[in-house]
Amino acid sequence: YLLLGSAGFKIFDQTVDSRLGTAVSGAGDANNDGVDDVLVGRPNFSSGVVLVIFGHGANPAYNIDFSSSTISAQYGFVISGLVSATSTDSFGAAMSRGGDINGDGIDDFLVGAPLRSSYSLAGNGALYGFYGSATISSRNLESNPPGVDEMFTIVGGEWVEGIGNAVDWCDFNGDGTPDLLFGASSAGSDAGAAYVVLGTPVPP
């Protein structure tokens, strides 16, 4: 639910066990229209799906049935995770706004996929960063992946590390560039770990 003062609206799903709303977050102004947007995770549907809902300055209240995994382009867009050999990568299990990572003046956002397997490592996990744009639109990471100027990926270096179970950002060293924070709760035989990646003028 989004509550706007005394009013609001509901985003819902009628698909059994898709877990819509496992994670929710503000996205910042990802489409650069002057209004903040919202991220809603659906990590248990296929390899995971993230719904990005555009903010609206006037009459923003509308209920959204996301059972079809689509949304009208005037309301937002959808990002679908990579096809996985396992049941799900849990893409969208954690999300956060990311600040302006690439320095173009537009807000970016972060999505975790803690069950992602890559580079012959099972469950090493992944963190995806998506760069905001006035033309940002729906993407399928498998069949229609964003280019390097639209997205970056950080993957775990250990078996079952599970990076991306928690994600956030801050300016840790005060240099004006966003720094990335992400958890890896299964690292070191479930001892767990957290990472701080300092931002640079050249993004990851």
UniProtKB/TrEMBL annotation:
Gene3D superfamilies: Integrin alpha, N-terminal. The keyword Hydrolase applies. GO terms for cellular component: integrin complex. One of its GO terms (biological process) is cell adhesion. FG-GAP repeats lie at residues 6-62, 78-139. GO terms for molecular function: hydrolase activity. SUPFAM superfamilies: Integrin alpha N-terminal domain. PROSITE patterns: FG_GAP. Pfam families: FG-GAP. Keywords: Glycoprotein, Hydrolase, Repeat, Signal. This is Uncharacterized protein. It comes from Spumella elongata. The lineage of its organism: Eukaryota, Sar, Stramenopiles, Ochrophyta, Chrysophyceae.
